[in-house]
Write a structure and sequence with these properties.
It is a single chain. Helix content is 71%, strand content 0%. It is built from 10 helices and no strands. Helix 1 runs antiparallel to helix 6 and helix 6 packs antiparallel against helix 7. The mean pLDDT is 94.
Length: 213
């Protein structure tokens, strides 16, 4: 029992290591790559999350089972991804060359699998004994804070309070959806939409600031 509790605490505290490692990569790579430092940082981010998921007792595939409960929560998870639709309609022309389009698509379609598996999946599972509200707020707070602490080293928009507040809001929505449905399927779908419509890769490159209307 003690071993299980210690392991659970280590997983619950893993955001500290994740942010420290990825922040260091972002800072060091920035000396050579500038704003493009987000690419090696993202690869490190995925590797650390992959390592943690492999070590966690619950197989990650279980989190993508068919959603249960009210369809409202699944729909809400997807709708959260549509909050950036207006900005995309006004700024999609910033996708001006093949390289940017490729970065935008790869980031938007791959990263949500890792982020949702970690922030909503593993982190909320490892803190479930704290109670639903505490687990939800803990996961959502780390999700929001990780953006300025890691990507905000070079991405100016992600340092802004408005961006952090929006990230906290969608983190709470996706966390609630996971708690109510037991599945990350629609959280991933909503996250993909958020990254696509929010022009995520362009935000990381300081080419688009969604906080400016």
């Amino acid at each position: 029992m003690m071993h299980s509790r210690t392991a659970g605490l280590l997983f619950a505290l893993s955001p500290i290591a994740l942010v420290a490692i990825c922040g260091a990569i972002q800072f060091i790579a920035g000396h050579y790559l500038g704003v493009w430092a987000w690419v090696p940082t993202m690869l490190g981010f995925w590797l650390v999350i992959g390592f943690l998921l492999r070590r966690y007792p619950r197989p990650p595939t279980n989190r993508f089972a068919r959603a249960t409960g009210s369809v409202f929560w699944s729909a809400l998870a997807v709708m959260a991804g549509l909050l950036s639709l207006h900005g995309f309609a006004s700024h999609w022309s910033l996708l001006s060359d093949t390289g940017l389009v490729a970065a935008w698509l790869v980031f938007a379609l791959v990263n949500p699998w890792f982020e949702e598996s970690y922030w909503r999946g593993m982190l909320m599972d490892s803190t479930a004994s704290w109670g639903k509200a505490a687990s939800l707020l803990y996961s959502s707070a780390w999700f929001a804070a990780s953006h300025p602490l890691i990507w905000g080293i070079h991405s100016l928009p992600l340092r802004k309070p408005e961006a952090v507040g929006a990230l906290l809001l969608v983190g709470v929505i996706w966390g609630l959806a996971y708690q109510r449905t037991g599945s990350l399927r629609w959280c991933v779908a909503g996250h993909m939409l958020a990254n696509l419509l929010g022009l995520g890769a362009l935000v990381l490159l300081n080419l688009y600031d969604p906080t400016i209307r």
